[in-house]
Amino acid sequence: MPPVRIWAAFLTSFLVLLASSSVSAQTPRQGVVTDKDGRPVAGATVTIKGGSKSVVSAENGSFTIPGNPSDILVISFVGYENYEVRVGNKANINVQLALKTDALNDVVVVGYDVQRKKDLTGSVAVVNVADAKKTASYDVAKILQGQVAGISVQGSGEPGGFVQIKIRGISTFGNNSPLFVVDGVPVAGPFDFSTNDIETIQVLKDASAGAIYGSRAATGVIIITTKKGKAGPLKITYNSYYGAQSVPKRLKLTDRVQYQKITDAAETNAGLILAAGNDPTNPKFISNINTDWQKEDFKTGHIQNHDLNFSAGSEVATYNVNLGYFDQSSVFAGPQNYRRYSLNTSLQGKKGIFSFGAKFAYTNSHKVNNTYPHLHPNVGNPITNLLTDIPTMPVYDSTRLGGYGGTDNLIQKAICINPIGMNNLITDYSDRIRTLADAWGELEIIKNLKYKINVSYDNLNYENFYFEPTYDLGWYYTNNTLCQRSNIPQI
Questions:
Q1: Domain shared by 251 and 367, yes or no
Q2: The domain that contains 152 carries what CATH number?
Q3: Reduced to 3 states, what is the DSSP secondary structure of residue 158?
Q4: Are residues 250 and 203 part of one domain?
Q5: How far apart are CA 166 and CA 25, in angstroms?
Q6: Which residues sit opposite 340 in a β-bridge?
Q7: DSSP assignment of 186-248
Q8: Distance (Å, whole) CA 432 – CA 193
Q9: From residue 133, how far is each of 74, 130, 323, 466 by CA, in Å?
Q10: Fewest Cβ atoms closer than 10 Å to its Cβ: which of 26, 157, 234, 245?
């Protein structure tokens, strides 16, 4: 037999032997797919990784698939984490799937129950919490800005300032704020609590929410669920960020020379006597002051957040503890600042037909307020004052009571407020202590029939301190009487 034929016959025999050994190695592998409670998962997809072969689990969670010892099976199901397992020499492969952390993208919380998104008939929005948390903010409402269609978010921008949120505009002459529900408990706004503790957010936007929560849901409902512990060994995570905030764009305004020329021309055309500070022939002419109020008042503020999380548990009970610290300073010259300490804990578990859970949240915040406009409405607001204040008014003046500059009715003939002096002279701060506690128990009497009892406690202690010393900030803005107030209701 020619050598070529000998080699061809040998190669053919080798390939046949290899194929037969490969086929014999792909023995049927059986298994069962269950959830974390041991219940069978029907319809789970079982696939050989990197291959095209796949099967679907039966009603009782069982499946059969041929595979080699070196194959890796990938088990997947909607709302659960993918599970991978090497076949090896296992004849029976039992798999327990774990819920995804973003499982509520597939099912939506709608009050006392959850529904699949495709089964919903009302207008419900599921917020992508991961994207929302990319916004550096202390406030739940602030991180919703731009995340859901139909939601309007407005705030002053000051550290710790109140943020107003409306769903689909103004619908009543009263309070248009939506109802907030945290872990099943209606609360009077969750603005005190750390945003890092949020797991999911759903927004019920139409009138169908009233069937669940009554008239309180007339302006919409925002449902928040917080992080829960997971079974397993102790897991410690630390998250933090630090940033700087500034006003990058400033308007170009007149300087001293330009302002004096414009003012002199206006007074001359009106037949008025020139202001002494703007008249080059007058001994009181101002030539050594040229204040750029935007440059003097705007500063670089800081913002930082730190969260330390502990999570662990067993098959019976799990717990989660989160410690948070948030600090933000203003971009205006002055002591404005917001600082908050928070503690969030949760415990939940299940034993047989009985489920239980508890939550405790505590925050302590200190906010140094901007002294106007709400306390001095006649002075306008910080932004417009920077644009209307004249450049011939100094920031500091040691000859005036308080040490800050002002205007004179004869020299400048202008009424201007010194925002830097106002913010630094007046002391105005508020302290808030918020406590939220919740405990619940649930008994599954028969399948799909449950009885649940829930007890909650929500308390807010608020105190404000305000002190206004005597000062002279120029024409129209003087104070000759000490003023001190405390325990002012929140505005």
A1: yes
A2: 2.170.130.10
A3: coil
A4: no
A5: 63
A6: 326, 365
A7: EES--TTS-GGGEEEEEEE-SGGGHHHHGGGGTT-EEEEEE----SEEEEEEEEEEEEEE---
A8: 11
A9: 31, 5, 17, 34
A10: 234
Tokens of 474: 């120029």
CA distance 289 to 392: 5
**In this structure, are 428 and 300 located in the same domain?**
yes
Q: In the chain, how many domains are there?
A: 3
Distance (Å, rounded) from C-alpha 315 to C-alpha 456?
Answer: 26
All residues at 6 or more sequence positions from 269 whose CB lies less than 8 Å from its CB, including other chains: none
Contact present, 347 and 432 (Cβ < 8 Å): no
Whether residues 90 and 131 fall in one domain: no
Last residue of a domain, one of 96, 125, 145: 96
Strand order in the sheet with 427-446: 232-245, 301-313, 317-329, 337-351, 354-368, 427-446, 449-468, 483-486
Parallel, antiparallel, or unpaired: how do β-strands 72-76 and 45-48 relate?
antiparallel
Residue 295 CA to residue 299 CA, distance in Å, equals 8
* 3-class DSSP assignment, residue 266: helix
Full residue range of the structural domain in which residue 53 is found: 3-96
pTM of the shown model: 0.71
pLDDT tens digits in sequence order for the chain, 491 residues long: 454 454 444 444 444 444 444 444 467 888 899 988 788 888 888 888 877 678 888 888 898 888 888 888 899 887 788 888 888 888 788 888 887 755 445 555 555 555 444 434 456 777 777 777 777 788 777 787 777 777 787 777 788 887 778 887 776 666 777 888 888 888 877 778 888 888 888 888 766 666 677 777 777 888 888 888 888 889 999 999 999 999 988 999 999 999 999 999 999 999 999 999 999 999 999 999 999 999 999 999 999 999 999 999 888 899 999 999 999 999 999 899 999 999 999 999 988 899 999 999 999 999 998 876 555 656 677 788 899 999 999 999 999 999 999 999 989 999 999 999 988 998 999 999 999 999 999 998 888 788 989 899 999 999 999 888 999 999 888 888 876 666 554 43
Where on the phi/psi map is residue 168: left (φ > 0), alpha (ψ -120 to 50), or beta? left
Task: Provide CB contacts within 8 A for 89, sequence distance 6+.
Answer: 69
181/171 Cα distance (integer angstroms)? 20
Q: Both 186 and 305 in a single domain?
A: no
Same domain, 180 and 329: no
Which tokens go with 473? 């900030």
Q: Using omega within 30 degrees of 0 as the cis cutoff, is the peptide bond preceding 335 cis? A: no
* Residue 28 burial (C-beta neighbours within 10 Å; 0-12, 13-18, 19+): exposed
Residues 347 and 200 in one domain: no
